[in-house]
Description:
The chain is of the alpha+beta class. The chain is 42% helix and 19% strand.
Amino acid sequence: MLTVRQTSQRRGKRVRIHLARKSRGRPRLSVFRSGRHIYAQVIDDARQSTLAAASSVDKGLKGKLKIGCDKAAAAEVGKLVAERAVAAGVKEVVFDRGKYLYHGRVKALADAAREGGLSF
Length: 120
């Protein structure tokens, strides 16, 4: 029987394999969420570099957010990462939800990034 950690690691690997086939050279919007904050990065795997990043601990957002671990915070992070990615010249990305289900904070971040100008 697998532990919860092993199950989530397997899910993460499965998602990344699927993204590698689907990406066709596009950068990926990677999401990490902890119990207190949420983080997002636009990563170019070909050059192994981060093109844009945002999180709920950024100085501009920290004062504006009540707490960093709710849907409102995720939406603000999504808007900010989209704004920074568009400024860096990225419009199309592949959404990498990692081991997390597309629900709640992850979905709120994705929807806000779409509204901010990213397409995926």
